[in-house]
């Protein structure tokens, strides 16, 4: 090749020795005028146009009207929608799993705290002084030699530890005492 090729659409005056796409120089026959009827679809009469082609519309702005959505945009939107629908289920399961893990972690922490509390309770109950104090308070147990004071109906009744107080009326049988207390309650 002898030199740089001229750009398409460039003038013929810019390059006096124009070449074909094959690299051969153009002959004088290429510069002859072509009769108007031999060019395909280039006629000026409407009946010479190819059927099936429409003339481009003229818009108010003068530029050709572009479609609102191109094929690529519709395809991209469809792919994004398909991806979203495909990932919706696994993402929902992932978020539900994370929520359950958080709930189980909180429950585990609460159970660990309960275990610590129960271990402290076991250590406290292993102490003999705690056991003795609870027996006296809750079950009113007394050691031999201690003095027990029990308040019944506002009157203090005294007695020694391990002994029973005397009965007030030993001659009355238990069922008569029961009927008498029912009669007193009836008024």
How are the secondary structure elements laid out?
Layout: H1 71-126, H2 128-139, E1 147-152, E2 155-160, H3 174-186
Antiparallel strand pairs: 1-2
What does this structure look like?
InterPro entries: FtsL/DivIC. It holds the Pfam family DivIC. Keywords: Membrane, Transmembrane, Transmembrane helix. It comes from Geodermatophilus sabuli. This is Septum formation initiator family protein. By secondary structure, the protein is mostly helical. The protein has a domain at about 70-130. It is built from 3 helices and 2 strands. The chain has helices at about 70-125, 130-140, 175-185, and strands spanning about 145-150, 155-160. A two-stranded antiparallel sheet has the order 1-2. β1 (about 145-150) and β2 form a beta hairpin. The chain is rod-shaped, with a radius of gyration of 56 Å. About 0% of the residues are buried. The mean pLDDT is about 75.
Distance between the termini: 139 Å
Q: How would you state the average pLDDT, rounded?
A: 77
Largest sheet: 2 strands, antiparallel
Number of strands: 2
Protein name: Septum formation initiator family protein
Region (Disordered): 1-68
Transmembrane segments: 73-91
Keywords: Membrane, Transmembrane, Transmembrane helix
